[in-house]
Amino acid sequence: MSISVGQLVTTQTEFAYPELSTRIIQAVFPANIFVNTLTYYSIADRQVPAVTFALQNIPTSQPTILPIGESEDIPVDMTPYSKSTVTPQFWGDSIRIPRTVTEDLQLPVMQDYLQRITYKTQYTRDKHVEQTLNAALSSTAHAAGTSNFVGFTGTGFDLANVFSQLDIRTCKANVEKDPNNYLISDLIFNAINAADLIRIPNYVSAFYYGRTNVGVQGALQQATAPIGLLHGYNVWVSNVATAGTVYALAANGANVNNMYSPLGFFVEKRPPTAESIFWPSTDEFRVFITTRFKAYVARSQAGYMITSLATS
C-alpha cells in the first residue's frame, strides 16, 4: 500500500511521525531541575501578555507582636508589598526532515530529528532559569584552606577546588539566617563537581550522604532524581549547571515562617507547541516549535552560589 507524505503526518503518526508536543512532555532529559525550583505560573488560558505579582517585602529583623494594655490601640501590621511584572518571551526553532526520510519510513532518523529539537527546547528552558539565577544570586568564591573539611578525628584538611563543608556553612549562613529564615532544600551540581564528592569520606559515608537509589535505574535515576542527601539537602546533578558553580536553593521559597516569599516564578504563556508543513521547493517537511516563557527571581535571598570550583 502506498502512503503519501501527507498521510504519514496525519494518519500514521503512531509509528511514523510521533506528535512533537507529546514527545516534549514525555522526554526524559536532565533539563528540568532548575525549572522545578521556581514556582510555576501559567497564563496560557488568559488573554494577557504579562502577569504582575505582589511580593512581601522582607523586614530587616524578625517581626513580633507586642504586649498592650487594656483599652490601648492595637498596633497595625503595615508590612508593604512590592509588585513585579513578568512578560514571557517568545522562543522558537525548527528542523528540516527530507521527504525521502518520511517516505522510506526511516524511523530511527525521524526519531532523532524529533528528539534533537525536543532536547534543545527542554535544555533551553532550564538553562534560561540557570542564567536568571546566575544574574540574581549572591555568591562566594571557594578558597583553599585546611578548614574546608573536618575529618572524623577532628583534623582539618583540604581538597583543591572541591565543594566543602565550609562552603555548605557559607550557604546556610546566607540563606537560612534571620530574618530571611529560608530553608535550603536542594544543591545542584554540574557532573564534574558532583564527581568530586566521591573523593570525600565525609560525603560517601552513609551517615553524611544519606540513602540513594542510584543503581536501581542507573543513569536515568541520576538524570531525573536527586542522587542522595548531603547534610540533609537533596543533591541534583545536571549538565545545565555551570561547571565550577554549585547552587544552594530554597526551592519554591521554603522558609521557617511559612510566609509567601517564593524564590521566583517560571511564567509560561504558551507551552512548547509544534506545527509541521510540507515545503515543496525543497521537497521536505519543516517542523516548527514555539513557546513563550520567562523566569523571574523574586527573592535572591532564597539562594546562594559557591563559585571557583573545578571546571574539568
Question: Would you summarize the structure shown here?
Answer:
With 312 residues, the protein is of the alpha+beta class. It is built from 9 helices and 14 strands.
* Approximate helicity band: 25-40%
State the separation between the terminal residues, measured CA to CA: 55 Å
What about the largest sheet?
Answer: 6 strands, mixed
Which structural class do the helices and strands define?
alpha+beta
User: What Rg, in angstroms, do the CA atoms define?
Assistant: 24 Å
Quickly count the domains: 1
Mean pLDDT: 81
CATH C-level label = Alpha Beta
Major β-sheet strand ordering: 5-14-11-8-10-9
- The total of beta strands comes to 14
Low-confidence stretches: 1-21, 23-28, 212-224
Any descriptors?
312 residues, alpha+beta, phage-related protein like fold, four-stranded mixed β-sheet, 14 strands, 27% strand
Folded structure, characterized:
- The protein contains nine helices and 14 strands.
- By secondary structure, the protein is an alpha+beta fold.
- It has one domain (5-56, 83-307): phage-related protein like fold, CATH 3.90.1690.
- It has a six-stranded mixed β-sheet, with helices on both faces. Strands 1-12-13-4 form a four-stranded mixed β-sheet. A two-stranded antiparallel ribbon has the order 2-3.
- Strand 6 (149-150) and strand 7 form a beta hairpin.
- Residues 1-21, 23-28 and 212-224 have low confidence and may be disordered.
